[in-house]
């Protein structure tokens, strides 16, 4: 079986994971990039401080500049100074240690700032003379990337989690949809709705779950058919048993009252035998329909078997003329002696039953298509063409047969067809061109035995 479901799940999962990794990486670097700049209002504040420092510097009032710087440092809890380009402090400014290590001015307020710095960077607002600079260690409150850890947590944990949960929901629904339908169908079937089917409900979908639905449908079809057949069989059987039981009941009453005991006792015996045959045939039919067995354990010679059946029937119908045209030998293997004999006997007996006294019944057998074809032609009334298949239905009898032979049950042909089929062959009925019915039975010459 092609692993459609595997590929269906594998594709989106692999692709989803790749896209997720890419999105997380892309968004991570984009956010970090955007967070690496000092916020616009803070940039303006820094520039304003630079402008104030420049204004004070230009007035030449070093004392005022120093006081303003002092106040700024205290207010913002930072370091600030005004220096020349050669890093000479002005207005009593003190240089931080960073300047003692080497010549280095601060950064422009619009520059990108590395987010993982330990000490806040020194920002530089150059005066219009280009020689003097207002320097300030970036106050903590202006430090960019304040929400970096939370953003990272969101991107690396919450986002993948949300996407994976979403993916899981989609996969779950994709799998559970058909399973739910199957569950509902199974429940409905178990509650007696034999017509329930699932495949049609799953639309164009085509994977292992639809294969499962098809298997369910086949199972439901077969089980439903079996249950209906069994129900029908039981109903028909009860109906068929009612008449002989009534007759037995009446005969027993007569015997009890001592009326014509000699006549009624054999009649009771005959009714009992008919009932036993009927029940046995019905049980065999039910078994063949339920189990659909392959009857393939015997090897037999059809000529011998037909000879012995014809001899019995000739004895039973002495007023009919049975003619046979059989090959000297017709061995078949992988068959069932019992089933074939019973089927052939039923068909030949029917031919005799429905052929008027003195009529001819012709039985022919010849090799045909890797098997043997048996034809039984009679001179009876035949069967209306629309009933040629119906006569193989259990308990089906034509109206004429009901009148001519009230003791028949309509089980002979259905049983014969299932027996021949279980032996690997087939049975067909057709009306002869002249008068009467032709039954054709085909048996395979050899069939491998099943272990
Ligand atoms: N050779 C035939 N000629 C005409 N009608 C036939 C012939 N064989 C069968 N039928 C019709 O098919 C029906 C079914 O036959 P089937 O053998 O199953 O039942 P049956 O002969 O009526 O009863 P039984 O159960 O005793 O065999 C018959 O009732 C009859 O109407
Ligand atoms: Mg019959």
Automatic annotation (TrEMBL):
GO MF annotation: an example: kinase activity
UniProt membrane topology term: Multi-pass membrane protein
Pfam families: HAMP, HATPase_c, HisKA, HK_sensor
Transmembrane segments: 6-27, 153-172
HAMP domain segment(s): 173-228
Enzyme Commission no: 2.7.13.3
Entry-linked Gene3D superfamilies: 1.10.287.130, 6.10.340.10, Histidine kinase-like ATPase, C-terminal domain, Two-component histidine kinase, sensor domain
Catalytic activity: ATP + protein L-histidine = ADP + protein N-phospho-L-histidine
Keyword Nuclease: no
Chain ranges of the Histidine kinase domain: 236-447
Principal EC category: transferase
SMART domains, sorted: HAMP, HATPase_c, HisKA
Localization per Swiss-Prot or TrEMBL: Cell membrane
Major localisation: membrane
Keywords from the UniProt entry: ATP-binding, Cell membrane, Kinase, Membrane, Nucleotide-binding, Phosphoprotein, Transferase, Transmembrane, Transmembrane helix
Protein name, as recorded: histidine kinase
Lineage: Bacteria, Pseudomonadati, Pseudomonadota, Gammaproteobacteria, Oceanospirillales
């Amino acid at each position: 079986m092609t692993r459609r479901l595997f590929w269906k799940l594998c594709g989106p999962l692999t692709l989803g994971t790749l896209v997720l990794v890419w999105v997380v990486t892309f968004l991570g670097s984009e956010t970090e990039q955007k967070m690496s700049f000092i916020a616009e209002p803070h940039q303006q504040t820094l520039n304003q401080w630079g402008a104030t420092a420049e204004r004070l510097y230009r007035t030449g009032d070093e004392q005022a500049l120093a006081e303003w710087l002092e106040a700024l440092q205290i207010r913002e809890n930072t370091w600030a100074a005004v220096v020349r380009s050669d890093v000479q402090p002005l207005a009593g400014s003190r240089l931080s240690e960073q300047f003692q290590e080497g010549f280095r001015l601060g950064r422009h307020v619009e520059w990108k700032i590395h987010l993982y710095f330990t000490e806040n960077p020194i920002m530089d607002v150059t005066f219009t003379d280009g020689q003097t600079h207002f320097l300030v260690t970036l106050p903590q409150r202006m430090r960019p990337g304040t929400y970096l850890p939370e953003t990272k947590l969101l991107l690396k944990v919450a986002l993948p989690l949300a996407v994976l949960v979403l993916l899981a929901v989609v996969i779950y629904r994709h799998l559970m949809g058909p399973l739910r339908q199957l569950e509902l169908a199974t429940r409905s079937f178990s509650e007696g709705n034999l017509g329930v089917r699932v495949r049609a409900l799953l639309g164009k979908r085509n994977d292992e779950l639809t294969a499962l639905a098809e298997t369910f449908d086949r199972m439901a079809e077969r089980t439903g058919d079996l249950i209906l057949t069994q129900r029908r069989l039981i109903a028909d059987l009860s109906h068929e048993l009612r008449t002989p039981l009534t007759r037995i009941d009446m005969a027993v009453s007569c015997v009890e009252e001592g009326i014509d005991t000699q006549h009624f006792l054999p009649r009771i015996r005959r009714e009992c035998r008919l009932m036993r045959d009927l029940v046995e045939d019905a049980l065999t039919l039910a078994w063949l329909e339920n189990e659909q067995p392959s009857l393939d354990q015997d090897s037999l010679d059809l000529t011998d078997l037909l000879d012995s059946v014809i001899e019995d029937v000739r004895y039973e119908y002495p007023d009919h003329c049975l003619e046979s045209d059989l090959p000297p030998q017709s061995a078949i293997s992988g068959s069932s002696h019992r089933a074939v004999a019973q089927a052939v006997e039923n068909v030949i007996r029917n031919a005799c039953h429905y052929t008027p006294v003195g009529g001819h019944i012709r039985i022919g057998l010849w090799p045909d298509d890797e098997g043997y074809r048996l034809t039984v032609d009679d001179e009876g009334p035949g069967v209306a063409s629309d009933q040629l298949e119906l006569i193989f239905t259990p308990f089906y009898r034509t109206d004429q047969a009901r009148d001519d032979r009230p003791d028949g049950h309509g089980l002979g042909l259905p049983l014969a067809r299932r027996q021949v089929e279980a032996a690997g062959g087939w049975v067909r009925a057709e009306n002869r061109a002249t008068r009467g019915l032709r039954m054709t039975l085909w048996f395979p010459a050899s069939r491998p035995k099943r272990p």
